[in-house]
């Protein structure tokens, strides 16, 4: 392979796996050590999982359905939506990352609110939703209460009509 990864990727530390249960058992003279820190199961897969894996073994050489059509259709049917209204991914953070990588480029601005600052890792927690909530709260405080049952749109609409 030629080329080099981006500097930010190259600067990431390499993965450091923990010691295996066998190594720990040998070091401490423990029989049947169990490694708990790596989400490993000491007793093998559940029978239902083993059955699902062995039942699909003939399809192992095929690419998975990256669009997860059957899963999306099942979820959509369960919650009463169309399948094109359902997305799946590697958790909510993975889906948000896909959206950001698809629609936001270097130099683009995204309005967010800082929700957390981790001084040890120097990571920021950012939230678009928290920004929207804060803006709505500020608008209600500035233009009136929503206790009357009026929506924020009603309140802002009335305030804008009063300005004309």
Structural class: mainly alpha
Give unreliable regions as ranges: none
Q: Please provide the ordered H/E string of secondary-structure elements.
A: HHHHHEEHH
Largest beta-sheet characterization: 2 strands, antiparallel
Shape: extended
Give the overall average pLDDT: 80
Number of helices: 7
Strand order of the largest sheet: 1-2
Rg from C-alpha positions? 26 Å
> Roughly what fraction of the amino acids lie in strands?
5-15%
Fraction in helix? 40-55%
Rounded to the nearest angstrom, the distance between the terminal CA atoms is 65 Å
Number of extended strands: 2
Tell me the layout of helices and strands.
Layout: H1 7-10, H2 21-28, H3 47-55, H4 69-79, H5 91-103, E1 113-118, E2 123-127, H6 128-143, H7 152-163
Helix pairs in contact: 6-7
Provide keyphrases for this structure.
164 residues; 7 helices; mainly alpha; extended; two-stranded antiparallel ribbon; 7% strand; single chain
Structure description:
This protein has 164 residues and is mostly helical. Strands 1-2 form a two-stranded antiparallel ribbon. Helix 6 crosses helix 7. It starts with 6 loop residues before the first helix and ends with a helix. 0% of the residues are buried.
Concise synopsis of the structure shown:
The protein has 7 helices and 2 strands, in the order αααααββαα. With 164 residues, the chain is mainly α.
